Amino acid sequence: MSSAKSIKKYSIGIFVFLMLVVMLYAFVFQNFPAEKPHQPSTNNNSTDNSSLILTEENIKEIKERENITFSSIKTSTLENYPLTSKPNFKIGEKCTYNIKYPSAPMPYDPNVIINDYIYFNVTFEVKDRKKINKTDWYLISPDGTVQVIAGYININGVVHPIRRTMISSEEIEYINTENGEIVGGELDRFSIYYPWMLKLSKDLKWTEKIEENSTGNIGDINGKYTVVKKNLNQIREETYEVKDIEKINGRNCFKVESRLKSCTNQKCSVNYKKLFWIDIEKRITVKFQLWYENLNTMNVDLVRYKQRVIK
């Protein structure tokens, strides 16, 4: 009798186990379906690919396979003009600028307040003159790192400042003492000096142009890459003109106006204007303004100049 009961319990146990296996299989099948084989995209302009970690090697391979090309050509009519001055720096010189700078836009957040503009001072110093590879270079860098408060954020009822590094003391510009060529630094931001300053003369006009052409690009989202085939022509053309000679804070300066035209597939816009006042003798920035349409978005003013006293 006890043997029959044991067999019955054993049979019930097997039945319950099989039911659990069936239920588990159904759950896995419904919630984690087997991955379907990769199907080519029906969109002729886009190719979605299986998981792949993109590296320089396979990006090159993909571009060759998909016939993705890119070219960039930079030209400047300023090359046709001679130097009218040489770099005129002295070790120990310091130029202090007061800067009004627009804050970077951020997505709306009720707990964040961002200042429209940032105001700060920065001092550039001629640190040294060194010979590198048989060429003499001036070394110019900010005299210290500049941090500012760009806004404030409320975290759990406590307000904290949002700090932003504007310029780092590690940004060093090397300026060739003969031809004014510049290496290093952050040329996209404001600088005390640009090589074109050494070619300025009354009524000078020139154009700098960058044209880029591509037949597509490669996107990468969570390890999956997508090839988008699209012909793209982009032109960035900046025209410069010496408008006048003006006196700023007792310094005779070239007033230079620059206008930027941006084109994408022949659709163009001219929104930005820059104004430079360049010291005729020293060939450094004395004043700078950036305009977006009719809005003055950035100002830079030389507020203090100091030379090292040699005893």
Structure overview:
The structure is a single chain. Strands 1, 2, 3, 5, 6, 9, 10, 11, 12, 13, 14, 15 and 16 form a 13-stranded antiparallel sheet that branches. A 3-stranded antiparallel sheet has the order 4-7-8, with no helix packed on it. The N terminus is likely disordered. It starts with a helix and ends in a 5-residue tail after the last strand. Strand 9 and strand 10 form a beta hairpin. The protein is mainly beta. The protein has 2 domains: 148 residues, no CATH class; 97 residues, no CATH class. The longest helix has 30 residues. The chain contains 2 helices and 16 strands.
Record keyword descriptors for this entry.
13-stranded antiparallel beta sheet, mainly beta, 2 helices, 311 residues
How do the strands and helices of this protein lay out in sequence?
Blueprint: H1 2-31, E1 46-51, H2 56-66, E2 70-76, E3 94-102, E4 112-114, E5 117-132, E6 135-142, E7 146-155, E8 158-167, E9 173-176, E10 182-184, E11 205-221, E12 224-248, E13 251-264, E14 267-279, E15 285-292, E16 295-306
Antiparallel strand pairs: 1-12, 2-11, 3-5, 3-16, 4-7, 5-6, 6-9, 7-8, 9-10, 11-12, 12-13, 13-14, 14-15, 15-16
**Low-confidence parts, pLDDT < 50 over ≥5 residues?**
1-44
Counting copies of identical and different chains, the oligomeric state is: single chain
- Can you give the helix content as a percent range? 10-25%
Order of helices and strands: HEHEEEEEEEEEEEEEEE
Radius of gyration: 31 Å
Structural class: mainly beta
Question: Shape, please?
Answer: globular
Average pLDDT taken over every residue: 81
Calculate the terminal CA-CA distance, rounded to whole Å: 118 Å
Q: Give the strand content.
A: over 45%
Number of domains: 2
Count the helices. How many? Answer: 2
* Record field, number of beta strands: 16
* Largest sheet composition: 13 strands, antiparallel
